[in-house]
Design a protein that fits this description.
Layout: H1 19-22, E1 30-36, H2 56-64, E2 66-68, E3 71-72, H3 78-87, H4 91-94, H5 118-124, E4 128-132, E5 152-155, E6 167-169, E7 172-175, H6 183-198, E8 203-208, H7 231-252, E9 259-265, H8 287-290, E10 291-292, E11 294-297, E12 306-308, E13 312-313, H9 314-317, H10 326-329, H11 341-348
Parallel strand pairs: 1-8, 1-9, 2-12, 3-13, 4-5, 4-8
Antiparallel strand pairs: 2-11, 3-10, 5-6, 6-7, 9-11
Helix pairs in contact: 2-7, 6-7
The structure holds calcium ion.
Residues 37-38, 78, 213, 266-267 line the site of calcium ion (CA).
């Protein structure tokens, strides 16, 4: 564990918990952060009802919580945005300003150990922590997930089109080659198993899916051979189903009101996806590359049906606040309408919290 010498409020405005003010008892909220890969703004039907994708579970999640319709990632690239999700810092500050890639010889950089991730903060508070999915913040020692606050890791350490595509458990390769059609369900099963094993203590699961990054792959349960030209829609349908499985498990486990679940994407879509009509795509700094779906759900804390047009960059959502102001501490009144930006932080955001780390 890295030593943290000064008081810091937590990272993630979005994630942490306002334990003292809002927890119904002394138990901290659990946190699950689900990140799709290259999922565009128009690929969640709550954000684009007239679009070609149907995501009933994500739509329901949005209806039961909050959806940010102008949520911006810091860059239209994978690794850079992921570094911001985990640290709350601009890419040029957390220093991951390119995509690590073994096939391109981009091997010798990653998220520095000196960076403090949300996982480290929560781990230091007694959370069980795990990452299941795409890492992409360095695939060699010393940049591997367990050096950044995760007790467990299982997944592909970079994009699913970078060779060799290998499944790694903690630091060991456990499968090669990888049948990618099973990944969405595999990561979901790992998440549910982890929750089951750790339900009696606070937990944080980072679930960065491989899909819908190319090459697209889907399980047999969601492949529709009668319409072979809509593999992208099949992939999104499976992702949606998998999010629903996690939410259903939380409900069955009576963890529903104790667990903040966030769903978003790391950048806009590649070819074949949907920006919802926004200009640009992945790799472009227009809205189509940087404005992504964002849904947060925590029954009892985030009022249902919150929808905002407030422009909210990821580095604000996930940044460290120091110090957390008293006004923010009291800003979560559901009656506060119209939604102002500070209120938005309070209502939607979730979280967050204040954690003093000595
Ligand atoms: Ca991506």
């Amino acid at each position: 564990m890295k030593s943290i010498s000064r008081i810091q409020l937590v990272s993630f405005s979005l994630f942490a918990i306002w334990q003292s003010a809002f927890a119904q008892d002394d138990t901290p909220y659990n946190i699950i952060l689900i990140v799709a890969d290259d999922m565009g703004y128009g690929e969640v039907s709550a954000f684009l009802p007239e679009g070609r994708f149907e995501t009933p579970r994500l739509d329901r999640m949005a209806a039961e919580g909050a959806m940010l319709t102008r949520f911006y990632v810091p860059t239209p690239y994978c690794a850079l945005s992921r570094g911001t999700f985990l640290t709350g810092r601009y890419p040029f500050r957390h220093s991951v300003v390119g995509n690590p890639s073994p096939e391109s010889g981009q091997n010798n950089f990653g998220l520095p150990r000196s960076e403090i991730t949300i996982a480290e903060l929560l781990q230091s508070k007694g959370y069980a922590t795990a990452a299941f999915g795409k890492w992409h913040l360095g695939h060699r020692d010393p940049w591997l997930p367990r050096s950044q606050g995760f007790d467990e890791y299982y997944g592909i350490l970079y994009s699913n089109d970078m060779y060799p595509v290998q499944l790694v458990r903690n630091e060991e390769v456990v499968e090669y080659p990888v049948a990618q059609g099973k990944l969405s369900q595999l990561y979901t099963d790992l998440t549910i198993n982890f929750i089951e094993e750790n339900k009696d203590q606070p937990f944080f699961v980072y679930l960065p899916h491989a899909m819908p990054h190319k090459p697209l792959a889907v399980s047999d349960n969601f492949y529709t051979p009668e319409t072979p030209d809509n593999l992208y829609e099949d992939v999104i349908a499976e992702l949606d189903h998998c999010v629903g499985q996690v939410l259903d498990f939380l409900l069955r486990s009576e963890l529903d009101r104790k667990t903040l679940v966030v769903f978003t994407s790391d950048n806009g879509p590649n070819q074949g996806g949907s920006t919802g009509g926004l200009r640009g795509m992945k790799g472009r700094v227009w809205d189509g590359g940087m404005r992504v779906p964002f849904i947060a759900r925590l029954p009892g804390v985030i009022p249902p049906g919150v929808k905002t047009l407030i422009r909210l960059p990821a580095w604000i959502c996930f940044r460290r606040f120091a110090p957390w102001s008293e006004s923010m501490r009291h800003g979560i009144e559901p009656s506060m309408e119209p939604i102002s930006c500070p209120c938005l932080r309070a209502q939607i955001m979730l979280v967050l919290v204040r954690q003093s780390l000595e």
